[in-house]
Design a protein that fits this description.
Aspartate Aminotransferase, domain 2, Aspartate Aminotransferase, domain 1, 14 strands, 4-stranded antiparallel sheet, 3 domains, 17 helices, 12% strand, Arc Repressor Mutant, subunit A, 8-stranded mixed sheet, 495 residues, alpha/beta
Length: 495
């Protein structure tokens, strides 16, 4: 392309369409001209003086752009001989065919074709939401209750101490004082039996389950999960190539049938202290049954203890791990519900025989760090602030739960059942058979009210119960009342 034609093309496209500096706009346009083949290899660019005059910008701006293009290999410049486009060998590449640009379905299919089998399994069952606040997002604490002043004071103290060791990768297993603090805390409030060496730090329960599946299972191994179950656990295990067998739950927890018991799994994932999403507590008899079964058939049990601190009518229950005499239970927890999800601090308590392998493997796979946060959290726990914070927000969450139940009764009386409201951060509003809860969720979202459909937590959808998961921890009573007025109107259209 001749220099004067390039100048004309630049003038047509250079008019500012955004607030970006002239340097950035000119640089992007010349790169585009080269990459699209408008400027062929060997073409000479206009002189910096001429181009600056034609575009009405400073010559230094053009000089800066030409220098950048030369550094990146787009052009070759020499004093007194001009600036020429380099041969970047675009001719060796097949031209991209953008056939799917106007066909989203075709683009999605093409993307799926590019993924691995386990990648396709993962994206076909996504359950996460970009919406992480407001009525009635389940599983989210009120981050506005986070003890900022106390946390900041401890953090400032850590920074002033010259924390160079805290700015490196973490040692295998994680920051030692935090592992000890967690071991002591769990022993006192959850009857977990452990040493600090058995505590392995993770970024959350998801990562704990991921590493447990990697180290304890091979692709094709059978894993029991509760039916219904948290979608995150289900998708994580499925994408790992494991054979998931959903085991129904009743009022006493997981209850495998005779045919299921005849085929022992490699791993059993349960939430015995507060089943998710239905909320029941596993009975003592079922706990003994599960532990005996795991001991007899050498199964591993992963205990997901995601929010057991929040019980409103009774004391928190002891852990399944604390009853385990055979060393078959791994205990997974985090601080996402007790403090805030953004900390990304979780842990596994593993049997002594697995402690070294798990600690080393987490370090090898994930290169953990974040030790400043871990040091602050260790002091926060040791000084009693975690226990105080949980007591305070437990009272707040109980008030919000009561407010939500009052609103349900005001609108629907006893026509709709409330399930699982004794603990945790959410309850379930059961819907009559035949109601499509996913449509209720869709219509509520259009009214800026967030909820989740109970039926989507079932692996076997034909046996799913319709209902809505309503999170109440992250919203105040003044926010709950108008939001539920809106949701009640949406639900009423389907009754």
């Amino acid at each position: 392309m001749e220099a004067f034609i390039l100048s004309e093309w630049l003038q047509q496209h250079f008019a500012p369409s955004d607030d970006s500096p002239a340097y950035h706009r000119l640089y992007r346009l010349i790169c585009r001209a080269i990459l699209e083949g408008r400027l062929a290899a060997g073409a000479r660019l206009p002189s910096t003086r001429d181009l600056a005059a034609e575009l009405g910008i400073a010559r230094n701006t053009v000089l800066q752009v030409y220098d950048q293009l030369a550094e990146e290999g787009y052009v070759n410049a020499g004093v007194g001989r001009g600036t020429y486009v380099e041969d970047i060998r675009l001719d060796l590449l097949e031209p991209a065919i953008d056939a799917d640009k106007d066909d989203p379905a075709a683009a999605l299919a093409a993307a799926g074709h590019d993924l691995s089998h386990r990648g396709r399994r993962l994206v076909s069952g996504l359950g996460f939401s970009n919406r992480q606040a407001g009525a009635f997002m389940p599983g989210i604490p009120d981050v506005r209750e986070f003890p900022l002043k106390t946390w900041s004071r401890i953090q400032n103290r850590q920074w002033r101490s010259g924390p160079w060791d805290l700015m490196r990768y973490a040692p295998a297993g994680g920051y030692g004082p935090l592992r000890q603090a967690i071991s002591d805390y769990l022993g006192s409030v959850r009857s977990v039996r452990s040493t600090a060496q058995q505590v392995v730090m993770t970024t959350g329960i998801h990562q704990g389950i991921d590493v447990a599946a990697r180290l304890l299972c091979d692709p094709g191994d059978t894993v029991w999960i509760e039916e219904p179950a948290y979608w995150g656990v289900r998708n994580l295990l499925t994408s790992s190539g494991l054979n998931l067998v959903p085991i129904r739950v009743d009022d006493e927890g997981i209850w495998p049938g005779e045919a299921e018991r005849a085929r022992p799994p490699r791993l059993i994932v349960v939430a015995p202290s507060h089943q998710y999403p239905l909320g029941m507590v596993m009975s003592l008899a079922r706990r003994h049954m599960l532990l005996d079964y795991a001991r007899q058939f050498s199964c591993w049990i992963l205990e997901d203890d995601y929010d057991s601190e929040f019980r409103y009518d009774t004391r928190p229950l002891s852990s399944l791990q604390g009853m385990d005499e055979a060393g078959r239970v791994l205990y997974a927890g985090s601080f996402s519900k007790t403090l805030c999800p953004g900390l990304r601090v979780g842990f596994l308590v593993v049997p002594q025989t697995l402690a070294g392998a798990f600690a080393d493997s987490v370090a090898e796979l994930y290169r953990e760090g974040n030790m400043m946060t871990h040091a602050v959290l260790a002091d926060f726990i040791r000084e009693g602030h975690l226990s105080s914070h949980i007591r305070r927000v437990r009272r707040r969450y109980a008030e919000r739960r009561d407010c939500l139940i009052e609103e349900i009764r005001r609108h629907f009386g006893d026509a709709l059942d409330v399930v699982g409201g004794e603990a945790g951060l959410h309850l379930i509003l059961a819907l009559p058979d035949g109601v499509d809860d996913t449509l209720v969720v869709r219509d509520a979202l259009q009214e800026n009210v967030v909820t989740r459909a109970l039926s989507t937590y079932y692996t076997e959808r034909e046996n799913a119960r319709p209902g809505l998961l309503l999170g109440y921890a992250g919203v105040t009573p003044d926010e709950i009342r108008p939001a539920f007025d809106t949701l009640a109107r949406v639900i009423g259209a389907y009754l």
